[in-house]
Task: inverse folding
């Protein structure tokens, strides 16, 4: 009887309100009933993105949204600058290369954030750069990149800032319009607490202008068609009905629990508590200087085989955390605190890591991690008594 | 977005396997399909009770089962001995008095177990006693009464041992036949991890003999009719179809996770860890000498208002624990570890209590409770590496 706890950075746990909404009998998508739900979800998505523009809701995962971001704004031979500091930075480069773009890369040490000065230098060196491609939160290295500073660099150039917000949208307050993001993408299975299968994407006025000139081929992901359909409260192709219903339910959950400000505050609090707990148990953070509020990377002791460690936590203890990717494989774990996560998910994660470390022969004093987290987490419960 | 954690001694959390089974379209109860499920659930219930006799499955809560235990075995004017050491001991007396029985009572200090010698003395003083009525686990005081020792007293007398096993069946290993229990009752919403609404009850051969002579009126709860229906894999009146389906699913969950031995071992382990955690945080146990493995009673510091404390934990922190009943109201909390509970439920409960105590002005060193529990709980995860 292993109870399962999902503490990986996606898919994340789905709240009962969304599960139950999605379990209702499916309705047809070309009906006034669904249009009402679709319009409501679209309105919620605009709030989530912090934009007055339309947010397209695609039956796709986030990677499809990343591809759409490029195919809808670029033409073959266009130069783009990729911030490559992790697996998802690599993905930007792969997509761009697949479509025949000319890719400049800034290689960023995994676990650190990009230096805006390096981006500025590259843009100065290549004034023909049509887009900067970056992750707001690089999930593989648990780093938060300085998107607002990058936006300051692209704003006055003929260059778009294209942001993979897959583990930042709904996690950190980064309103698209006010920040100056030109294309923003996210997926349903992260802070939106839904099963995978839905990508959200929005374009700034500047990006739509690029779209008019973009020559890359796109059909299913043609956002001009989606924008037009949105005006009629529908999508160009069959929408992912149950996920849209679930998204609408999630927006109601968020609205009924303090709205987006509380959503961001919660992620910040859980991330701080997790980091404090990790440090208290004597482990090192992967990204101490610019940590993502979505997930926390932790260096394992050298004596511990990370593959066996995460397998033990998952299969023996019931606690699923993420391991490392690329050259971090086997060396780190990632404790997520994104989406439908709370105080006790942090406590579960930290106490489980302590027990697993002990099991792997590491000298651990039980309770240190939870205690440091409790200190931070207890504050929110202050009574007005 | 308050995530809810249910750490009260019933209803207890329901595992997904049972929720999903109960969510399937309902089937008719007079069909071969349902009979097969019913027969399988009845077989599981016999294993659960440790009896070769039939276990009746009534659409009722445990209290209905308690009433059936009396009405099916007693006649007006019969003398019974009630072990009264908590709210549920009082309930035995109330039911017995309602039906015109003559009630002797052994008053037991709340938080302690009955002394078998006192029961022996009462039986010697009143050789006409027809039944001893006792809780195996007195939920209100978190005490485990010494049922095997009581069975040794009733076995050779014309006296039944009638046991409320509502928070002991499925929690502690106490096989009905081998122990010498004459009537055993439980409810679905405790160790059986189901919603409330199902009572299980079984009678020994001796109790069935009493039943033949029992003159108390009973209609819905006439167990002779239920015993006869069981032979045809059905119940006398409409069975609680979805709960029977759920019960069958729960028996499969138990079977697939080490069976009843592991079920009992888990309850023992969680109870030990909870008690260690409570003591480590400097609090006193309500029942240190004979604690129930189902739930742990904890004296709150005198400065803490228990009513406000449990309300704060439930409404502000999302963690539902039970308070005290009767004269313990406001003075204790009860942390349950019964049914679908695991390591991390214990950690959640203890860390939440620490944070709530701090909130109520009590001097708490965070992490002490979880640490003591982790020490005990970590052992089960030993690899064979």
Result:
């Amino acid at each position: 009887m292993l109870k399962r706890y999902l503490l990986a950075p996606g898919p994340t746990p789905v709240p009962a309100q969304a599960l139950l909404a999605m379990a209702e009998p499916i309705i047809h998508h070309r009906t006034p009933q669904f249009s009402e739900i679709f319009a409501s979800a679209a309105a919620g998505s605009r709030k989530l993105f912090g934009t007055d523009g339309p947010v397209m809701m695609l039956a796709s995962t986030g990677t499809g949204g990343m591809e759409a971001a490029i195919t809808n704004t670029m033409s073959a031979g266009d130069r783009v600058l990729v911030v490559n500091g992790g697996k998802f930075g690599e993905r930007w480069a792969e997509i761009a290369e697949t479509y025949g773009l000319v890719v400049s890369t800034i290689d960023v040490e995994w676990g650190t954030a990009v230096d805006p000065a390096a981006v500025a230098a590259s843009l100065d060196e290549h004034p023909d750069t049509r887009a900067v491609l970056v992750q707001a939160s690089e999930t593989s290295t648990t780093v938060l990149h300085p998107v607002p500073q990058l936006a300051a660099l692209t704003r006055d150039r003929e260059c778009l800032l294209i942001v993979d917000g897959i583990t930042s949208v709904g996690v950190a307050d980064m309103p698209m319009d006010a920040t100056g993001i030109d294309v923003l993408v996210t997926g349903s299975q992260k802070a939106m607490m839904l099963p995978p299968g839905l990508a959200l994407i929005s374009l700034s006025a500047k990006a739509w202008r690029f779209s008019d000139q973009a020559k890359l081929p796109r059909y299913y992901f043609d956002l001009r068609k989606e924008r037009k359909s949105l005006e009629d409260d529908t999508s160009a192709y069959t929408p992912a009905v149950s996920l849209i219903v679930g998204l609408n339910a999630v927006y109601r959950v968020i609205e009924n629990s303090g709205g987006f400000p509380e959503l961001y505050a919660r992620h910040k609090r859980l991330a701080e508590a997790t980091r404090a707990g990790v440090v208290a148990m004597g482990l090192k953070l992967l990204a101490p200087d610019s940590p993502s509020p979505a997930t926390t990377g932790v260096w394992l002791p050298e004596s511990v085989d990370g593959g066996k460690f995460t397998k033990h936590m998952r299969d023996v203890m019931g606690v699923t955390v993420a391991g490392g990717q690329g050259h971090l494989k086997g060396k780190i774990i990632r404790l997520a605190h994104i989406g439908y996560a709370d105080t006790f998910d942090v406590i579960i994660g930290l106490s489980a890591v302590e027990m697993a470390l002990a099991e792997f022969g590491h000298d651990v004093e039980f309770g240190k991690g939870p205690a440091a987290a409790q200190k931070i987490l207890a504050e929110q419960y202050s009574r007005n008594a």
